[in-house]
Queue: 4 jobs
Job 1
Amino acid sequence: MMAIEQGDALPDLELAGADGAVLRLRDKVGAPFVLYFYPKDDTTGCTREAQDFSALLPDFRAAGVELLGVSPDTPAKHAKFAAKYDLTVPLASDEAHVVMEAFGVWVEKSMYGRTYMGVERATFLFAADGTLAQAWRKVRVAGHAEQVLAAARALG
């Protein structure tokens, strides 16, 4: 399956929200939308990224942009993660990796000579019409949320 590319439409896929409710990605069409993928709740980089997006959530919303963070963790784990760090950015679960595969972020990784499947940290910015405006792959956390906010504001 080909990963989503610039100009492609937001796929009609579902995720489980931190409260267990079903979230349809296509329901996000109509306003700019940021979807970011991260490997695991309550790890150093993932926590920092969620804190950065949470800190900027009012700025994203003021610009009319919604955010959603996705990992393979369970909705219950997301709820604990959000409560532990006072996160305000919405989180969703993709335990079966369906959405991650569609976005090309469920990839083979290697650490200490061992290969395994995992999440490549990536962020996708969709325009109000539901087309992919910009993608960041192999994201480095420092300063990333600010970059995404600037790009979202530039959509106008």
Job 2
Amino acid sequence: MAQLINTLRNISGLQDNIVDWNNAAVLFVDYQNEYVDGILSLGKAGKTALGKAEKLLENARSKNVPIFHILQKASSTSSVFNCDSPLSDAVDCIKPNDNETVIHKTLPNSFFKTDLEEMLHLTGRKQLIILGFMSHMCVTATTIRAVELGYDVIVCEDACATRPLPDKNGNSIDQDLIHLVSMAALNDRYASIQPLHNLVEVVN
């Protein structure tokens, strides 16, 4: 008989969160040109995730939900996310509008030395929907910190993507596997991991 595998969330009696749009804010993490046209290009997986993110952004805007755009901004001498380069700007399909908050960060955790915690507190919202690039890095770091701050977190898994990584021997670990394991690790304790169609009413 196969052994039943439970997450820590299941063992603790936690259920998958149901989106409460009256209590939710959405964090769009690092949807930047670096991941489309830069040396960190996420290729087809990134383009697919961007399409999902665009759908969620449209839905959140239609519900007047507080929306936060998080952008990685490195120094003017950095080879990635250079603050003087358009590669550090938001991709066109996820461009923030004038009613949405933009947060610049320098480390994977979107709360580290930024105003994000304070700005979220002002909304009074207790549920966060988090999505972005990359699954194993900024999405993971931001999700963990959000839970530590007391938020109920949903991660939109198919609006996230990542890139291949080398193991300690220099062998490549496939980006799909990195993404899958990242989502499984967050699902074990930190967040309710859900696809886009669980979060929006209509997906065309």
Job 3
Amino acid sequence: MTAYAIGHLRPETMHEDVFAYIEAIQSTMDPFGGRFLVHGKEVEVLEGPFPGTVVVIGFPDIERARAWYASDAYQAILPLRTRHIAGEAVLVEGVPDDYDASERAAALRAEAGL
């Protein structure tokens, strides 16, 4: 099942290290089947405060997403970003093609005893 690496980044000023990170990241993702789904786009905020931007990278599965993040190649370039850009990064597994939110709501309702 597809998995995603999602970054909520708040760049204040660009630095040469950040450019080097952007130039190198694709080669760290390629061995794990990673590809950018969202990168460098304006965020349209509909609710609440949301400073910064979003990056979304898709991977074939959660195992490959984890392996990419932990890889020596990615860990070697990661400080180029983290030293200069505040933010959070998460990995999350997607839902199957036949996902039905009402089934999830029923399960949550049952767990809550409602």
Job 4
Amino acid sequence: MKTIFTSLFIRPYDEGDLQSVVSLFYDTIHSVNLKDYSPEQSDAWAPKEPDLSRWRSLLKGEDTWVAVQDGRIVGFANRDGEYFDCLYVHKDYQRRGVAKALVERIEGRAAAEGHAKIRTDASLTARPFFERRGYAVVRRQCVHRAGQVLVNFAMERSIQK
């Protein structure tokens, strides 16, 4: 069942959103992604003590958007040029149109800037979502992080203005 929240809105990321976004990232990896990754892999991907300076520069330097419902950040996405870097949705807001709204904003902005395609590195968990949106797997990848190997997929799709 598809549910679109009437009060869901997408707005640009603000530096004051940093803690909410980082917490959402951690919580999503340690709940939603546990169906595809082990607790050890999740800890390597999203450590309990995040590098806030890295997050600050990542989110500030890219085209970053947050999805807000009832005053709460329930998702975020960002992009650098044609590279779609992050897409995370709170565990309690999965399959409710949040990711779709964020992806449409990211893809629309990339197309408006004249990019012919958009690329991403999708997790095992996110791959089916991106495939439904027309992304194709370019290659399977193994990312080494904190002594763990995490599988993801380089994916891309054409976008048009």
